[in-house]
Amino acid sequence: MRLRRTLPALAAAVVLGTTATACASSGSSADASATQELKGQNLTVAAVWSGTEQENFKKVLEAFTEKTGATVSYTSTGDNLSTVVGSKIEGGDPMDVVMVAQPGVIKQFADKGWLAPLSPAVTDAAKKNYAGVWSSLGTVGGTQYGLYFKAADKSTVWYNPTAFQNAGVQPPTTFDDLLRTGRTLSDSGTPAFAVGGQAGWTLTDWFENVYLSQAGPELYDKLTRHEIPWTDPSVIKALTTLGKVFGDQQLVAGGGQGALQTDFPTSVQQVFGAQPKAAMTYEGDFVGGVIAAELKKQIGTDAKVFPFPAVDGGKAPVMGAGDAAVVLKGAKHAEAAQKFVEFLAGPEAAAVWAKAGGFISPNRAVDLSVYPDDTTRQFAKSVIDAGDTFRFDMSDQAPAAFGGTAGQGEWKDLQDFIADPSDVRGAAAKLEADAAKAYKG
Question: What is the dihedral of CA 288, 292, 295, 298, to 10 degrees?
Answer without folding.
Answer: 100
